[in-house]
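We give the entry.
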Amino acid sequence: MKARVRPLVLSLIVAMALGTTTGCIRLPSPLGPEGAGAPLTAPADPSSPAPLPDASASPDAGDEWGDAFAERDRFFEEQQLPLDGTPLVAVTPEQKEFIAQQKAYVEEQGATWTAQEESLSLALAADACETAILNAHAIDADLLRTHVATSPLFAQLVPADLQGGDRTSAEAPIASVMVFGTTFLCPDDGDAWIEAYIEVYGG
């Protein structure tokens, strides 16, 4: 499958709900430069998922795309994430653990945790999980770069005029939250997202 063929559902909805109020939000996580001492490993030992077939290499590409979208829909149902613009709140045990750890880390850095940070953290993680599903779980540095460059959430959070090292520095802590969240919401893909993050932003 080619990366990012369709806009991601949840990220667009949350980006519209956030408007332009999040440009100054910084969300440190245990994966970013601020948490360089933290181990870069998923919290669980996930089993490897069976990847979806590459649509470009199969005569039944339509069925494979249908399988990917069906898997994406199942993911949103299992995560119980609203798609109507309602702020996201942790509801599953995995989401609650992610948010608890993220909140604790943010507060350790002297920042204040709010409901907006919770909603955004969940959206970033779910967005990455959706990208993994729609790309047959083939996650690498190129996919991470494409995801960040085309994500409506990153567009809201990173000033458009930033370039080069300044842009990378602004993206890294946000991508860190996103990748850390995947280890809870879609742990089978978490290690691959971590490896991609280290390649793109360092570890």
Residues 164-185 form the longest helix (22 residues). The chain is about 60% helix and 0% strand. Confidence is low (pLDDT under 50) at residues 1-59.
